[in-house]
């Protein structure tokens, strides 16, 4: 036996002792690294575990008798809102790269789990009692449903009492189960299939191990919808900003609002008002919750995610806006905020409100109309009007329906779902003229009810392409009295003023509608109208030179004081008494609506501008289905036009709104226009009719989807103060400025092509547009130039009989590139102002910003349109 000396014994011992601290440090580092790795793994699967738990709670709630009261598609599946007030985001399960359990309900009705897909163990509470999914005990689902969690060491544990106590999951050998280090049979959701049938009102769910679907009825008629909240900036608020929203409800008997500190939120008469705090330290998103209760005491929570900016609404607005607000001498903007029904302050009444006011409903099917039978329903339409109180007379080819004494009809002419033919070959050129106010033409929905014009009209004067009659016109036959004046204007009023001084007020009182009018061919007056361009640029036979500048400006009288008359709206043209301005009588009807309906013609594929078609027809006007003439505070909304020559003209109207309109089918001549009207609002028109591209007069090029009507939405004749808002016209079109002296038009946040020669107008009626054309945040999809314009866009081409627009204001023009000429042929400037070309500016909508500035808030109807 070898004997080791002390030195031999000590050396390895000392060495071992020296190594101990190093090994201890390595162990600690390994443990820390393992802990960090485990923490990362747990965090990575946290949302997956939450998804699994949500599916369990949702299913347990459904089994317990709760009813789905709202199903909303989301990116990962569906948000399911239950009658008890809870909501769960559920989706179908996916295989998970971890050791996840497969959850099911056993044959005994107990919640059970398996990690191998074969051997199942029941979940149990802390006392060892199984968790029965079908238990009738009156306790919340969260307290009888297994809710899973991965602990800090990576082991599965479960609670069934809301997190008070936890128990570890185990396998058949009672060993704890680690979540990582392998793959189990489970998925990220309880469900292997989810089917929602909205029409049938049914939600069908299949568990991961089930072969069939279990159906649950869904209640679809309990909701609160905040219109416009889903828009890009629908819930973005600036400091102290107030917005109003239209609210649509069904079976809501009680509401409760929970708003963050500093927010003021109220809900009254289906209008939600939200006012943001006056201060905040930083931009942040906060939830506004509206808890609604149904007649059966079901509950839902509507959550609005409001983003609060830390600036005032106009802090970053462009120079043009700042100059407008400050009243700078450099200001180039007018106040367009008075456009539209009731000056844009409120929405037109819905059918229910009209009924509450005393309107009666007349269903055309009760008077002989049979939808979808391919026979004329014109007579039934006329009989329904007669039943409502209108009298029928025949004047040549025009059937006139009117009420004695110009009283309102107070009726709703209703077309249920289906197609109704109002013009056949037997009814060609026979107009239906509704000469009355106070009524509504309403369908079951723009995609449900269609009024059809199955035969085209013909030109009243052969060769005059615009003279085909309209199928339906809602019209006052008098309008502006051109034979005599009420009084003369005796003093000047600046542009933007509200008050005029007149010679006599004996025939004027508050509430009256009148026309502020002038027509004068004094060269000085005409020169001012077309400045800075000289009169010599125009042919002597041009109407404005020969007959004079003519202005119609329709107003409602707010008050009369002495010989001063104050209007409710600003005057959008300076008034100089020396040019013989007068006040004229304006006859009109009011409170007329057309909504929730489609108008369909048979416009041919080969639309050609200013060309006749077969049998004395005209591509420009043979399929005109409806016009509104000499109306105030009236509207057209939620309407489709299909294969029409013209969608709708608003002629000699004031404060009429036409919005939420779609134009499709074969392209035609024009869209929706303000013709000789004041403060018309045309908004959210989507024009995507298709046809052949027209490179120049008389030529057809390739077929173009989304070509659009030849003239997009716009103006013609002495239109004043029109707003063309959020309109999308086609890719072979442009806004309309159809000459005959339109003024003061706002093209606001519109999208579409910017093609020359699409504005329209006769060579003897130019300029296409006079002063105060404002093009704001135009998003061009396609641009073009005339061949002689040297690759630039020219507003006033003195070498042409057409293409003449007084210098416009262009702010925020973006999209397809364009080069606006500074001058052309002469040194006269082509533009009044160009600001931020190539980039969108704030405010995005000038009309909205001006309306907000005037009212202090954005009205609900406009927010809903966004």
TrEMBL record:
Superkingdom: Bacteria
Domain DUF4988: residue ranges: 36-207
Record-annotated Rhamnogalacturonase A/B/Epimerase-like pectate lyase domain positions: 362-456
Keywords: Signal
Matching InterPro entries: DUF4955, DUF4988, Pectin_lyas_fold, Pectin_lyase_fold/virulence, RHGA/B-epi-like_pectate_lyase
Region forming the signal peptide: 1-26
This protein's name: DUF4955 domain-containing protein
